[in-house]
Amino acid sequence: MKKIFFALLLVCIATQSFSQDEQSKASKHEIKLNAVLTLAGIPEVSYEYLINEESSMGVSVLFALDDYAYDFALTPYYRFYFGKKPAAGFFVEGFGMLNIGEGDSYDGSNFSPTETDFALGLALGAKFLTKNEFIFEIYFGAGRNLFNDNSIDAVPRVGLSIGKRF
User: Fold this and answer.
1) Distance CA 53, CA 91 (A)
2) What CATH number was assigned to the domain covering residues 27-165?
3) Residue 104 gets which letter from DSSP?
4) Do the Cβ atoms of 87 and 56 come closer than 8 Å?
5) Which among 56, 57, 107, 154 has most CB atoms closer than 10 A?
6) Quick one: how far is CA 90 from the chain centroid?
7) Phi and psi at residue 151, in whole multiples of 5°?
8) Burial bucket for residue 54 (CB in 10 Å: 0-12, 13-18, 19+)
9) Spatial CA neighbour of 55 closest among 96, 16, 83
10) Is the CA virtual torsion 85, 74, 156, 93 positive or negative?
11) Nearest alpha carbon to residue 136 among 94, 95, 156, 164
12) How confident is the model at residue 104 (pLDDT cuts 50, 70, 90)?
């Protein structure tokens, strides 16, 4: 009985060590730059963590150097993928967006207060992955601000991003 138990224990340990080697080789991190917005003077950088082959979560940071719907945005998101490659292909995204921008002016004056708001929204897109794990993705969507009456009603979520999986 002890020999059988010892043999089963060795098989379990060996199987576990092989599966850990495969997991350690899998790339689970991505860093991306939204090329279109960056060329327009609105740099947006994103980090994404691959939870499994079908889903990921990430965060984007945007700083508007020129006129845009808002001056700063921090956007955490969750994506569900429908492609054949791990975390690639068509995706649906749910996001929240903490955005800071100028609100509407009061009583027609030139004073525009700074408004902070939080939006919830959805986006659709597609991610393409090369053999060397370079990324190209395109997405679009919108969200609605929830709290301040002076902030913009809807926030856009658009991108044409390039990046690298590591």
Assistant:
1) 12
2) 2.40.160.20
3) P
4) yes
5) 56
6) 14
7) -80, 170
8) middle
9) 83
10) positive
11) 164
12) low
Burial class (CB in 10 A: 0-12, 13-18, 19+), 132: exposed
Please report where in the chains the tokens 């054949």 appear, as a residue: 84
Q: Quote the CA–CA distance of 21 and 6 in Å, as a whole number.
A: 23
Tell me what percent of the chain is helix, strand and coil, each rounded to the nearest 5: 15, 50, 30
Helices (H), 32-104: 35-39
**pLDDT value of residue 150:** 77
Q: Is the pLDDT of residue 88 over 90?
A: yes
Q: Are 76 and 59 contacting, i.e. CB atoms less than 8 angstroms apart? A: yes
30-64: pLDDT as tens digits:
999 999 999 989 999 999 999 999 999 999 999 99
Predicted confidence (pLDDT) at residue 9 exceeds the cutoff of 50: no
Q: Give the pLDDT of residue 74.
A: 97
- Here the tokens at position 131 are 């053999």
Taking the C-alpha atoms of residue 79 and residue 93, their distance in angstroms, rounded to an integer, is: 4
Average of pLDDT values for 134-162? 93
% of the chain with per-residue pLDDT over 90? 65
Amino acid type, 90: F
